[in-house]
Here is the input.
Amino acid sequence: MYHESKSESPLSLGGRQHRVGGTLSYGICQTGCNAVAVACYASAGAVFGTVTAGAGVPAAIVGCNSALGVCMVSCIAAGCSPIP
Here is the structure.
C-alpha cells in the first residue's frame, strides 16, 4: 500500500506527489537481508536458524547476526522513504 505525502519537501519538484515505499519495499529489503545472512552462516559452516545464543557461538556467527541486525534496521528507511 502506498501513502501519498501531502507535505512539500525542499527536494520536491513543483507539485509532484511522492509516495512512501511501504510494506512491499520493506519486505523485499528484509528478504535480501535474510538471504545474505543465510550465505554468511553457510560461509561460517553453520545453518541459518539452528544456532542459539550462548558462550560457545563462533565469532563469525556473531558477526553474521550483527550484520543482519544492521541490515534490517536499514530496511526501515526502504519502507518509509518517499518514491518520486
